[in-house]
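Task: sequence in, structure out. Protein: LacI family transcriptional regulator.
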Amino acid sequence: MANINEIARLAGVSVSTVSRVLNHHKYVSEEKRAAVQKIIDEMNYTPNRNAVDLIRGETKKIGVIIPYTNNQAFDQLLHGVLNRSVEKDYAIIVLPTKYNPDKEIEHLFMLKNKLLDAIIITSRANPWEDILPFTEYGSVISCEYTGHPEIGCSYMDRYASYLEVFQLLKDKGHRNIAFTTARGTESTSTRQTIAAYENVFGKLDRAYQQSDCFRFEDGYAAGQRLLSLDPRPTAVYANGDEVAGGIFKYAKSVGLDIPADLVIIGQENQPVGVGLDLSSLDHQLVKVGEQAFDLAMAKSKAKVETPYKLILRSSI
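Result:
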């Protein structure tokens, strides 16, 4: 089997010149590049990418820890990462966890084992204390704010966004407000949602919170439960536009008028929300993903905030 030394001998150049050609280094004359490439083609030589990565000191691969695929919010974050990776010629390795903490740590070991240059965490199952040791081996970028100086983050101010939604509903005269979340109080975003609610309305009656909402069908089921409460909510804030769409469909099925009988606000400005003309809290997750990639590529520990937008449509 051909090796880099044999290619150098046959092409009449140094081993370092062959290495520069393999790594697309620009400081090689066209004559030498052509001679090396001719031998490579004749011998059908394929470089050992792991060896090349070790020589180069980087893999040009970034891992993205993501709890679920086929979830609009996480898909938007991943879409942003992929946008920038294509521009910069990086490979993206998708690392799903289903919020399994052991699986998450297993993925982080890819950084320690030099299989990745960086890892972007879209949402986590482990405490930061268990993640921090891996920053010794490469960049760890979070898509939520963290004050740890070793970790860069691309984030939006979720608490402020939730506060604005609930204050808007209060200003419009609503007092019986329900909301949905993906996870329970083990989730930072859920805790922030509850904190924002209680800042505006006081102590939360947990009957008006519905967790385990991820998709349209979950929203429909949440609508069935929440809209049977006494007193019935006059407004629902959903943790995604697909979930909001399910609530919308159930509300319509029982004869409720939107927004006269029920105000609905969704999240992340997704196509189903646009189609149903639902108001939506847009955290601009594609931009967050793009910025996360830039931080990972630059090995930056900066904290970069992306502003959110509250989009008001006919559902309020």
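The domain at 4-56 is CATH 1.10.260.40 (434 Repressor (Amino-terminal Domain)).
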